Amino acid sequence: MIENLFSKLKLVINLTKEFIFLIILLIVFFIIMTFWGHEEQPHLWVIALILFSITKIYFLVSHTFKKLDKLIENNHSFNHILLLLGTIIGIIIISFAIDYLCISEIYPEAFSGIPYNQPLLFRFFNLLYFSIVTFTTVGFGDITPVIPAAKLITVFEMMSAFVVIVFVISKYFKNNY
To answer: Which structural domains are found in the chain, ordered by start?
Structure first.
């Protein structure tokens, strides 16, 4: 019982550290981009953001599979795997919301349905909502990417959602049934 609780706590602490590290990286990117002239060289910043997003996706997906293999190998409970999956989904959604915020800062017209003149926090919550809608494949259409870079980042999130949900679940069931 205590060992199971310790194992869950260790998993939560590790995932929290990784989540905080990724979010700090994204916030630092946003701050540097904001103060280092994203208006003068928007294409350069978008390319950097796309490369960062690809790297982030690779890291998150490969890291998820490594952690999942470790959980399955050590016969952890289904609750541990759900905790891992929920945390990774949360990390993906929030990190893509920050990516969208960066794009909307570089190109104010990047998304239709989001007024650029609203405060940064409101824009972030709208883009967080858009990220959740994209990840869950609901796609209401009230917010849509307009420019190619925003569409590309949105596709990255869709692919991440598919890989994480379908392959993680299939890997779990393949190893347990």
So the answer is: 2-176 (1.10.287.70)
